[in-house]
Amino acid sequence: MTAVIETQDTTVAKVGPPLLKVEGVKTYYGNIIALKGVDVDVYPGEIVTLIGANGAGKSTLMMTIFGNPQAREGRVLFDGRDITRMPSHEIARLRIAQSPEGRRIFPRMTVLENLQMGASLDKLKYFNDDVERMFTLFPRLKERLTQRGGTLSGGEQQMLAIARALMARPRLLMLDEPSLGLAPLIVKQIFDAVRDLNRTEGLTVFLVEQNAFHALKLAHRGYVMVNGLVTLSGTGQELLANPEVRAAYLEGGRH
Amino acid sequence: MSTSAPARPFEPDFAAAAKDAVLSGVIALGIFGPLVGLRTTQNMSNQLIVESHWGLVAIIVGIVAVGRFVLRAFVFPRMAMWKAQPKVESTAEPSFLRRNIKTIGLVFLLFYPVIIVSMLGYQQSIKWVDNFGIQILIYVMLGWGLNIVVGLAGLLDLGYVAFYAVGAYSYALLATHFGLSFWILLPLAGILAAMWGIILGFPVLRLRGDYLAIVTLAFGEIIRLVLINWRELTNGSAGISSIPKVDLFGWITFNVADPNYVGKVFGLANSSAYYKIFLYYLILALALLTAFVTIRLRRMPIGRAWEALREDEVACRSLGINTTNTKLTAFAIGAMFGGFAGSFFAARQGFVSPESFVFLESAVIVAIVVLGGMGSMIGVAIAAVAMIGGTEILRELSFLKVVFGSDFNPDLFRMLIFGLAMVTIMVWKPRGFVGQREPTAFLTERKAVSGSLVQEGHG
Ligand SMILES: Nc1ncnc2c1ncn2[C@@H]1O[C@H](COP(=O)(O)OP(=O)(O)O)[C@@H](O)[C@H]1O
Ligand SMILES: [Mg+2]
């Protein structure tokens, strides 16, 4: 059964300077180069997706933005500020939040405690209100409030990972393959939630995906990464229509 | 759910059990034959001769074979049946004992010396208050202190005894050289130990798991070797003796010669039992302080950060938690309680030497934390009672001499029993006595509307 995800309109204008700017970033693991000079811009209020095959370097880019590993060359700017050499926890304090690859929720903590950890930055000032918001966004979490994170289903864990990131009231939300291993219906729920957040609150989202079809439909703009380099970029619709993209990521795909 | 298979009648398979028994008997013979059966000693003219103890070997082999037979024929099938039965989650309230274990335990601890003294009198109470009460409480406190580092923050520290040593030597040296009171030196020992905790913390910030364990183990040994070799300061392996006793803030002392000796003040007969009882309440207070601080910290951002750190360090950083500070505070606060316990230890013994701070001590404390269930305060307390109390009890079991001969010294088997008990407990309860961690976050009243939903999660 295919869950229908509506196509994003691309009327969001790129106003002002980008919120996130990745400039010529090269990242290495030891001597092996994983990113070979990547440029990516994310403007305020946009959903930008990065698609690419397994091992292309998508997660590496996301982690480089978060300062672990750090870029050896190039710069990462957030809101005009150079964050290339900042430690991760300080980057988080600038209100960049992520749902990392593998979700990384705290397995022995309850759902509520996981959410609480997400709100560490504000000393729980808005905690009750934000928890309520998360329940509206992901009603499933409300039912699972006192359950331990490790015992949640994959979809619930993904919802929790996103909710935990949102508890920090981020200016930029970064998601690494949120659809991985989830049933189409759950993917739709999660992508719908992201779209809602973007529409109602103007949340800026950087979405890393292998599920190119759904991601390009959701995103205003997209980048295609091959072997540590960005090879293509454009609006979601342009990329969906692009023959190369169709051949490499869409045809015969699982959408 | 409950389409349970009909309970099969319980049929022991004697043939298989007998085969098993013979096999384990042979293995036991192979192992214990040379180990126990043959012993080399010197005869009158200093020649090496071989004594044989085949009777003892026969007893051991017999025990192993029979034990294996019983296990195979009766115990294993029972256990299998137990496991096969569908787990019925008991929805009933936990028993009265279980619900109130903290209060009951606390009341018992408060009245323990009173009970012992009223049953046995002052003179006879010493052994029970000192060897059991104080000894166990020291390990409870050490367990709770290390629990912060290992149980909460998830940093496997095998050198915890180093901080215990720092605390003990701080008190021993400063009290004997400068005559400072215990009450000044107690916080000082804590601070010094905390400092050493940070000193250990820095180099190991990037290490986790096994690597961290090895480095902390080495750290513990370094401290001990320094204590042995820095003779000018520590008097080497001979240790420091005549460490002053604790007094009650100078009002009452426990030295018979003093004018304000407790016996003189209250008109009691001289007895060393008063000091023991006083020490008992002192270590009880220190242990409860550790518990109180830990419980409070767990509900505060730093405590939550510790627990999150144990679960996932990368996720912590991406949530804005400074993992460096989080680890260092865990080391420092854990070490501080080790230091408190150390200065108490020095005051209680009146003597310290490097001998008391060997790796085995660290291992015992880690074992207590792991057996307790990594993070559970009650679990750690139960584990300390079981392990330390259990090995102390061994001294009392004089009937073992009847079985194993009069030169049998049960003390020598403490570690064997300790190990066996650990293995048994870990098989029986792989996650420790209290394996589930207690959540610290709950929704406030305003959200209590969703109470019915909240309840569901327990099921
Ligand atoms: N920790 C690491 N050490 C060494 N190489 C790594 C590490 N993580 C990823 N890589 C390599 O970097 C490349 C990019 O990986 P990654 O960013 O995870 O790709 P993607 O997320 O696009 O699937 C791959 O070739 C991968 O093998
Ligand atoms: Mg990836």
Automatic annotation (TrEMBL), chain A:
Offer one example of a GO biological process linked to this entry: L-amino acid transport
Q: Which UniProt keywords apply?
A: Amino-acid transport, ATP-binding, Nucleotide-binding, Transport
Keyword ATP-binding part of the UniProt annotation: yes
Identify the InterPro entries for this entry: AAA+_ATPase, ABC_branched_ATPase_LivF/BraG, ABC_transporter-like_ATP-bd, ABC_transporter-like_CS, BCAA_Transport_ATP-bd_LivF, P-loop_NTPase
Q: Which GO terms describe its molecular function?
A: ATP binding; ATP hydrolysis activity; branched-chain amino acid transmembrane transporter activity
Q: Which SUPFAM superfamilies match?
A: P-loop containing nucleoside triphosphate hydrolases
Q: Which residues form the ABC transporter domain?
A: 20-252
Gene3D superfamilies listed in its UniProt record: P-loop containing nucleotide triphosphate hydrolases (3.40.50.300)
What residue intervals traverse the membrane? Answer: none
- What family does this chain come from, according to its entry? Belongs to the ABC transporter superfamily.
Q: What is this protein called?
A: ABC transporter ATP-binding protein
Recall the taxonomic lineage recorded for the source organism: Bacteria, Pseudomonadati, Pseudomonadota, Alphaproteobacteria, Hyphomicrobiales
Automatic annotation (TrEMBL), chain B:
Where mainly found?
membrane
Q: Which domain of life does the protein's organism represent?
A: Bacteria
InterPro entries, per the entry: ABC_transp_permease, LivHM_N, LivM-like
- Establish whether keyword Membrane is in the entry: yes
What kind of membrane protein is this, topologically?
Multi-pass membrane protein
Q: Which CDD domains match?
A: TM_PBP1_LivM_like (cd06581)
The segment(s) forming the High-affinity branched-chain amino acid transport system permease LivHM N-terminal domain are 19-111
Record's GO cellular component terms: plasma membrane
Q: Which keywords annotate this record?
A: Cell membrane, Membrane, Transmembrane, Transmembrane helix
Q: What is this protein called?
A: High-affinity branched-chain amino acid ABC transporter permease LivM
Q: Which organism is it from?
A: Methylobrevis albus
Its taxonomic path starts at: Bacteria, Pseudomonadati, Pseudomonadota, Alphaproteobacteria, Hyphomicrobiales
